[in-house]
Amino acid sequence: MSLALDPAAQDLLFREARTANAFTDEPVTDEQVQAIYDLVKYGPTAFNQTPLRITLVRSPEARERLVRHMAEGNRPKTAAAPLVAILSADNEFHEELPHLFPAMPQVKDLFFAERPVRENAATLNAALQAAYFIVGVRAAGLAAGPMTGFDFEGVRKEFLDDDHTPLMVLNIGRPGPDAWYPRSPRLEFDQVVTTV
Fold it and tell me: Residue 169: beta bridge partners?
């Protein structure tokens, strides 16, 4: 059985897509970011909680502050990427649930009254949304360079607040020369899928 998605789109989104480590200096516009978000915002999350929050690091001063918190090997590419985004989980996402999940407005207090429960839900569901966002970046013809090599607490204090948990820093742009490391192997279908 073939996939419904055109083979060229399959390549763009998955087979040929790679994590970029170098970018050209072509800017990434707010319009591009909005188009990406408008595409991926429909990806499913539990109770439609949509806890992902995106902080675009655009000013040179903010970029410098962020680079200080990156692991040493991630600093040069974060300093040079056309756009950098901090993807975080909003641990107070439940405040939006009456609007986002009108079929069950009581879900806010029924399931998410306690902060530890919200934090677990926010981390899982924002990570799902972060993956959708990366695929959306690829759909825009751009490359993404997601990184978790940074001082999480430092980034939280510098750019977020106690209600947000950083998940990753994402470099975004058009891939530059030597942007890719060699492709690493993947597990095969029968190594991953079990039928019971």
Answer: 86, 147
